[in-house]
Fold this protein.
Amino acid sequence: MVSRSFSQPDSSLVGSLHTLVVERCLQIHPRSPLLDKRVKIFQPDDGYRASVDAVFLSALVGSAAPGERILDIGSGTGAVSLCLAHRFPACEITGLEIQPRLVELSSLSAAANDFANLRYLNRDIRRPLPDIANCSFHHVISNPPYAEHDMPSPNPGKAFAHNFRQFDLASWIAFALKMMRPKGHFYMINRTEAVTEILSALRGKAGAITIVPLYSKKGQDAKRVLVSARKDSKAPARILPGLVVHNDDGSYSAAAERILRGGECLPNLWSVR
């Protein structure tokens, strides 16, 4: 069982974070709910905020055994790792995030949910990380920064989070593979246009690659893809039918509802289109 000291912030940190919320009450959404209000999350009003992509990405993890270690690279406001901490309370989960303010908020969210198995660290993956051992994680998951269009956001937080030009995707994946144990599992969400680059970065290093398209509505092209792979595997790749997120009227599809509200994992729904 995971020790409570693994992630639980000390009382002074929790106190300072509550002060942060009070001081910035006009800028922070207190406890925006995830998984039908079973998971609480603090997010900024004026910067990067997690979307449903984070919940879909967390649902890509079909299983994790007690005691296994999960790494969330570029954890942002913590949505992915918070969902995973809820689903896998006996796993050790670490989030790495370069923006200090988001680390503060995600740490507050972990405390608000009483997730003793979850911690967040302010780290830059482009620099050496002497306190985090290579090849030590069973699962590595990431929603890396990428741009929706060529025009940068006027908000510095959003621009930083989404400006993929600051980060090389191949280097991002190389870091993930370096942190992963042999036969470890890799999970990512990105733009459909990035599939070629993702496959190139994984070639010769991981197999059992699975691509799950996310369709906004039935009949539309997929703008997002979920990708999973296994380090050192030689198994062939496959493309699954994917998931339609919205009905024609804009409401969530039944399959999406089962993930977003019901907390089901995607492997149970891959046949749903």
